Amino acid sequence: MEATLGFTVTEADTAVAVGSGSLPVLGTPRLLAWCEAATCAAIDPTLPAGSTSVGTRVELEHRAASPVGAEVRVTASASYVDGRLHRFTVVAHHADGKVVATGEITRLVVDSAKFLSRL
């Protein structure tokens, strides 16, 4: 399982806009959301009808700043699967290949209706 998604940093993605700092660069919360989106894109085609996946654990190292207008590609690759548990390695790069972030995201496959009925 693998997926790569591309994004362009906008003003709405900056640390100042998402409340995680005062600089006009890609905010870590937005980068994390992009990484999670890549894991969803990787796992979703494999899910049975009526199922979804939920994030259960995140480890992310935001290693380089990205200005407004920067192109960022995020790749999620399955690194471990055990039944309903799926662990992904995530890597974000600038268009020039510079690593923006690395990490690991764990997702658990759940029955959507059953999950929501427990809330």
Short characterization:
The chain is of the alpha+beta class and 119 residues long.
If you had to describe this structure to a student in words, what would you say it looks like?
By secondary structure, this protein is an alpha+beta fold. The chain has one domain (2-117): Thiol Ester Dehydrase, Chain A (Roll), CATH 3.10.129. The protein is 22% helix and 45% strand. It has three helices and five strands. The chain has helices at residues 15-18, 28-43, 112-117; strands spanning 2-8, 51-62, 71-82, 85-94, 99-111. The protein has a five-stranded antiparallel β-sheet with strand order 1-3-4-5-2. The model has no long low-confidence stretch (mean pLDDT 98).
User: Which range does the strand content fall in?
Assistant: over 45%
The rough form would be described as: globular
Low-confidence runs: none
Query: Helix/strand-derived class?
Result: alpha+beta
Secondary structure topology:
Elements: E1 2-8, H1 15-18, H2 28-43, E2 51-62, E3 71-82, E4 85-94, E5 99-111, H3 112-117
Features:
5 strands, 119 residues, Thiol Ester Dehydrase, Chain A, five-stranded antiparallel sheet, alpha+beta
